[in-house]
Design brief:
Elements lengths: L32 E4 L7 H9 L6 E4 L17 E4 L7 H9 L4 E4 L9 H7 L2 E3 L6 H16 L2 H9 L17 E5 L3 H13 L2 E5 L5 H4 L4 E2 L2 H7 L2 E4 L13 H6 L5 E4 L8 H9 L5 E4 L21 H6 L5 E3 L8 H19 L7 E4 L7
Parallel strand pairs: 1-2, 1-3, 3-4, 4-5, 6-7, 6-9, 7-8, 9-10, 10-11, 11-12
Antiparallel strand pairs: 5-13
Helix pairs in contact: 1-12, 2-3, 4-6
Family: Belongs to the D-isomer specific 2-hydroxyacid dehydrogenase family.
Pfam family, one: 2-Hacid_dh_C
Keywords: NAD, Oxidoreductase
């Protein structure tokens, strides 16, 4: 198998079999170098700048390939690796990392459902994430998707590129006065609700706890059945945990209005994709916008244009003209990515200094003696 690897040319530091840095008897100790997986082209200069911000601090080596079973051996000799949101960090991958000398995993995302935290703790690996970044990036993109679906923007653009300027099939609705359901009213959900309030929408919320800032906007919290049955637009902003896996299942989809719009910029596993296909096949829902997909690992962030699409569910979803799929880019703004890589560099520096900040998920490992 050919792995697309793009590496920043630099020489890795000398290391022992345990992954610790060796001191060169003839000179000063070499600085730590971090191996970062799944680095996007636009992300790389920001990531390098974040680690270069502190003179003498850790440097970063960037790979385009995501971390998974095939690429994990590349991390041999690196005490610290940084993973992307679509990396696979199950027990098998973590074991390979640990055997190669890795002692810390710094994930460049808030979500961490792709990491087996129990296995990391057993292996003595420290795991950190980014607990927060600009909520506006995701909230604004969710509304961009909702508007694109509701106002048939993609269909219109495809037509006008062929010089077809008819309006047939392009009629939309005013957002003003519609009921917008926000599932998950944390920071991102709150930003999404504020934008909806600006449109003049009625706000409906679903969460384990009410957000006073949302209730101040006039949001009414409802049970699951009421939430799905009354909302004209449903946007998902809850974390993916066992309780929210397939939150939008066949039952929830059956409750939704025939002309409702569903938007997911959270995690792919929040929606039962097979049930969604069946719902769309029956001619229900006005539109669906997905920036995430439950089987996106190995697909999103990669160029698959010259390959046969073997994921039948995703291929079927994309045959519907009122379904819009983007490749997990809601967070991808200069502001948000800058905050993410800055926090990641800070997590690594804290670990090297023996500090455990709020972003640490598994504080099992210990930094090397300095």
């Amino acid at each position: 198998m050919t792995i697309p690897v793009r590496i920043v040319p630099s020489r890795p530091p000398e290391r022992t079999r345990q992954g610790r840095r060796e001191r060169d008897p003839s000179g000063p100790e070499r600085p730590v170098e971090i191996l970062a997986f799944g680095v996007q082209t636009d992300e790389r200069p920001l990531l390098e700048a974040a680690f270069d911000a502190v003179p003498g601090g850790p440097s970063v080596r960037c790979l385009a390939a995501a971390l998974d079973h095939d690429t994990a051996p590349l991390a041999a000799g690196y005490e610290v690796v940084s993973s992307s949101v679509n990396s696979v960090l199950d027990a098998g991958v973590l074991a390979v990392l640990a055997r190669g000398g890795t002692r810390m995993v710094a994930q460049r995302s808030t979500g961490h459902n792709n990491i087996d935290l129990d296995a990391a703790e057993e292996l003595g690996l420290t795991v950190a994430r980014v607990s927060r970044y600009s909520p506006h990036s995701v909230a604004e993109f969710a509304w961009a998707l909702a508007l694109a679906v509701e106002r048939r923007v993609v269909r219109a653009v495809h037509r006008t590129r062929d010089f077809d300027f008819r309006l047939d099939g392009l009629m939309g609705r005013d957002l003003h006065g519609l009921t917008v359901g926000v599932a998950g009213t944390g920071k991102i959900g709150e930003c999404f609700a504020r934008i909806a309030h600006g449109f003049g929408c009625r706000l409906l919320g679903w969460d384990v706890a009410e957000n006073p800032a949302c209730t101040a906007l006039g949001m009414k919290y409802a049970d699951r059945e009421t939430f799905f049955s009354e909302a004209d637009v449903v946007s998902l902003h809850v974390p993916l945990v066992p309780a929210t896996h397939h939150l939008v299942d066949a039952r929830a989809l059956a409750l939704m209005k025939d002309d409702a719009v569903l938007v997911n910029t959270g995690r792919g596993g929040l929606i039962d994709s097979a049930a969604l296909v069946e719902t769309l096949r029956r001619g229900r829902l006005r539109g669906v916008a997905l920036d995430v997909y439950e089987e996106e690992a190995g697909l999103f962030f990669l160029d698959k244009s010259l390959e046969v699409m073997t994921d039948d569910t995703l291929a079927r979803l994309m045959t519907f003209s009122h379904v819009l799929v983007t490749s997990h880019q809601a967070y991808f703004t200069r502001d948000a990515v800058g905050q993410i890589v800055g926090a990641t560099a800070g997590n690594v520096r804290d670990w090297l200094a023996g500090r455990a900040g709020e972003n640490v998920l598994v504080p099992a490992g210990r930094p090397p003696s300095r």
